[in-house]
Amino acid sequence: MFVVSAGRHTRMGDVLEYALEGVAFETVNTGDLPRAGRKGRKVLFAASADRYGENAQMRELVARLHAGGWDLSGSACAMIADGEQGGPLHTDAVKLLAAANAAGAELMPRPLLESDRELKRFYDGKETPFERYRAAARALVARLAAYELLVSKRPRVRLLTALEDGAANGWRQAVGRVVTAAGGELADAGEADTTGFLCENTDGLPDGKTLALLGGGGRARFLIASPATGSDLYTLAVLERACVRGDFALAPRAVTVFEGMSAAEALADEKPLKRIVIE
Question: What is the C-alpha separation between 279 and 275, in angstroms, rounded?
Fold first, then answer.
């Protein structure tokens, strides 16, 4: 396991020592990331924010991942984020996980463990909050170590969307062709190993119908048509609901955004469809 450390750790250092006990790992700083991917590798990001909730190293890491600075193909990722109070730490953590996914990593369901200065979420009246925090970190590491990436020679994909019948049917036919070309098949819920979500950003945030689709589990991919501005915020909101706080695993390179295009416009143009990844 690789532990990618960002920020100055105080409390986090004690948490990591407990969580990684008995686990073979290598610590990597954000300025010295290896470039080569390795099948089955596990990566744990550990970030500590300052009293304003800031961590400049995290943002630099996100930029490097988007620039191709680290190939995470064949790996699975999770993260522990330790903050003093509020600030942008949560959003930055989700952005980092999304960047890792874009670099080829698979995200297991609920891959993010967060804390604040008072450890409020860890009070239960039995153990101390810090003891429960350490235990939660150990459980996250154990889930990551045991997590098995899906390997499918013939991917079976189902498509879910809140769009109306005409657009939905057209997209099912188009996605079916892409899946077939990749050696897979379009499948029903009980037979699929991956769920593809077709979403359309018209207001900057997912609507209720779209959010209602994200309550299941399994392995997910997203096709996001974005005629409106704010595709980054829309994408983060969808990923948070489905994976960060939900029960979907995020397949490698799971998100394809059709920037400046409606679902109908993207469907009518062959070039956007060629960007859809099926693994």
Answer: 13
